[in-house]
Each structure stands twice: as C-alpha cells, then as structure tokens.
C-alpha cells in the first residue's frame, strides 16, 4: 500500500482480518459520529481526524490506476457529505475507476 505508514498498514490488515470492512460497520461508525457530535460529545477536529483516517484507507487501498487527484477529492467530498448526515451521497459506482489522469502519489 503505497503512501501509508506501517501503523496504517497494520490497521488495514487487522480490520480486514476481523471482518470490519463491512458496510454495516461503516454505517454504524458514521451514525455514531453524527450522534456524538449532535450531543456535543465529539468535536469537529475529531470528526476531521476520523474522516482523514477513513479517506487514507480508501485511497491507500485503491488500485494504482485509479489513484489521481480527482479520485482523492471525490473520496474526501463524499466523506464530508456522509458525516454531515444530511446529504445524499449517491452510488459508489460514480467513484471513477477510469483511466489514470493527473496521477498523484497515493
């Protein structure tokens, strides 16, 4: 996984091995974060760190052919909308698995 450190690699493999990559787990995490923020128990900076960790995992796991600046921006934008809790995100099919362009180091 290019572009991520050893701690992130370990976390990725540990999560995969335990089966925590399921959509149900992700939905639960997003909802928990929304609820904690609304209750005043989670600060905006904490939400940003959580979104960053999730985004780094998604981007770090993407096939090299997909890794470009537009893909990174799309992932970050979708996470922002998800964690806002009030916008439809749309299909993951729209996350462009297209030709590589504007390649960046993922």
Structure description:
By secondary structure, the chain is mainly alpha-helical. The protein has four helices and no strands. Helix 3 (44-61) packs across helix 4. The longest helix has 18 residues, at 44-61. It is globular and about 40 Å long.
Short structural description:
Helix content is 59%, strand content 0%. It has helices spanning 6-18, 23-38, 44-61, 69-84.
Form type: globular
Largest sheet: none
Strand content: under 5%
Task: State the separation between the terminal residues, measured CA to CA.
Answer: 8 Å
The poorly predicted ranges are 95-101
Radius of gyration, rounded?
A: 14 Å
Mean pLDDT: 76
The run of helices and strands is HHHH
Structure keywords:
106 residues, mainly alpha, 4 helices
Strands, helices and their partners?
Elements: H1 6-18, H2 23-38, H3 44-61, H4 69-84
């Amino acid at each position: 996984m290019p572009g991520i450190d050893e701690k992130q690699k370990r976390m990725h493999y540990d999560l995969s091995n335990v089966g925590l990559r399921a959509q149900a787990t992700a939905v639960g995490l997003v909802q928990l974060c929304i609820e904690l923020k609304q209750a005043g128990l989670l600060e905006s900076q904490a939400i940003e760190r959580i979104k960053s960790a999730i985004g780094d995992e998604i981007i770090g796991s993407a096939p090299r052919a997909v890794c470009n600046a537009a893909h990174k921006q799309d992932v970050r934008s979708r996470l922002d909308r998800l964690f806002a809790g009030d916008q439809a995100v749309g299909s993951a099919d729209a996350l462009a698995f297209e030709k590589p362009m504007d390649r960046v180091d993922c």
